[in-house]
Design brief:
Strand content: 15-25%
Helix content: 25-40%
Largest sheet: 7 strands, antiparallel
Number of helices: 19
Structural class: alpha/beta
Strand order of the largest sheet: 2-3-4-1-5-7-6
Distance between the termini: 59 Å
Oligomer: single chain
Amino acid sequence: MFLTISTTGDHGRPATDLGFLLHKHPERAQTFSTSHGTAHVFYPEASAERCTAALLLEVDPVALVRRGKGKGRGGAPDAALAQYVNDRPYAASSLLSVAMSAVFKSALNGVCRALPERAQAPMPLRIEVPALPARGGAELVRKLFGPLGWTGVDAVAVPLDEQFPEWGDSRYVRLVLEGELRLADALRQLYVLLPVLDDAKHYWVAPDEVDKLLRAGEGWLAAHPEQKLITSRYLSRRWGLTRQAMQQLELVRLAESDDLDVDSIDNAVDETTDTEEKPVPLAEQRRAAILDALRAAGASRVLDLGCGQGQLVQALLKDVGFTEIVGVDVSVRALTIASRRLKLDRMGERQAARVTLRQGSLTYTDKRLKGYDAAVLSEVVEHLDLPRLPALEYAVFGSARPRTVLVTTPNVEYNVRWETLPAGHVRHGDHRFEWTRAEFRDWAREVAQRHGYGVDFVPVGTDDPEVGPPTQMAVFTMIPADGAGQPHRNETKKQNTQRNRNEAAEQNGERTEKETNAA
């Protein structure tokens, strides 16, 4: 994907001021990591008379498909045509909008400490987009950009094949915009209208997209004759969000017509009363799900394995039903921070007797961890190298053997919903891996079978119909034998012995017992 921004000037107001406004030096080529590829900013020309800044976005289509699990860009009609051969690396779309917001963030906000007056003043601009998908054709492009102050809107349809003109035009246009506008206004218009013309987005449209639209559309969207079409397409035709945005834009229009502030019109609610339902952070939802599962299991003595800075221990202490809480972590620094968070040095004697912080490695057996009702491994397993997982498994399920074990871990399929997460990246720099729902369930079921546990799976966070919840939780419950409260150790031992026999038979080219019975 390619976009150029050009301006002209003289020695009094050199065109190279564009470098200050974009916060990118004309003498350097710079590279930036974006959510779905690599962005390059460079200047093909830079003189006092004329300066051009170019934004080149290299999209990794394979990573895009893997993140989207083949779902395409927000349900675009042509997404199912081919997963790996498509227009995404070449045609301007919401991918380029996101790259612009990341690379030219200060310019979009109209901020320039070096030349504040220049940033607030109109300047001669020429913007070129060689390949712009336009569902509605060149005429729609002119309808969208024409009312925004551009003196020239040149949208030329790209033919399907120049050698065969009878085939007609493609849905792509070559766009050239010319006029005198503030750079921030021009960038905001492109940020909104690129995905509107493409009529698709590569990421999930969440409620916060309304705020993004209103911020980028400030000063021009409320009075735009195609406001409804722009709002609907930008929000991927999610009618609830579209209606919310239209209501806000109507308030802005009324305020501008009466030369008033929006707040002075929309004053039906006392500002001192917070009636807005704020989204609950995922970390809080995760802790709430863990607490609910522990209470349902009737646990009172709980191990927080890999307790980190003590957030879960702190939440457990607030419930008097948890009579003994042990936080274990290999990091002394993390335990020190947890101690400060919990204020152990100032805690009352009765409360302090309920909590213990202990250094220890989760991949080694520890006799002190035996006999507890429940153990929690919250966002822990993904921080271990895969070859170390069997050691963790035995230390927890084979040696400590609490009645209930809770394991939470990220669902890598949900990563496509994080707009700012670069393609192919995990959510945290220390994550050694992240599992799909199927991979996590396979691992959990194998662990449960080997050690005499049953396992259930609980979604944590919004359970997206396509990619599942952001966090997945497995609830392991020890299987009693004949109601005596002891696990089926003999049955587990029998399963392990049979599995070893089958593996040996396979190595020798013999039939396994199951294959023999089937024959």
